[in-house]
Prior knowledge:
Elements: H1 4-32, H2 36-96
Amino acid sequence: MLGRHAILDKKEQAVAGERQREREALRQSIEEEDDAALKALKQDALNAREQRDEAEKRIKESDEKIKTFEQSEKKNLDQQDQGAIQGATQTGVETLR
């Protein structure tokens, strides 16, 4: 059974593949277009799609950095909590002696 991450990866790969085919079809259409104005409009559309894909890539990278940072912060807090618990336990044991 696939995990959630694996399912998202397959879904993302399918979307990326579809977008790549879409861009290739648009490139081919641009090459075959005789009308200069329509060719320019199609090129603008292609450029916008490529910019969208790059923006989505940067968003994903930023989200991963946030996730990594948050996990690191949580780990640090957990370690601090553990240290405080150990300190309190040691203090309590010494008080009982």
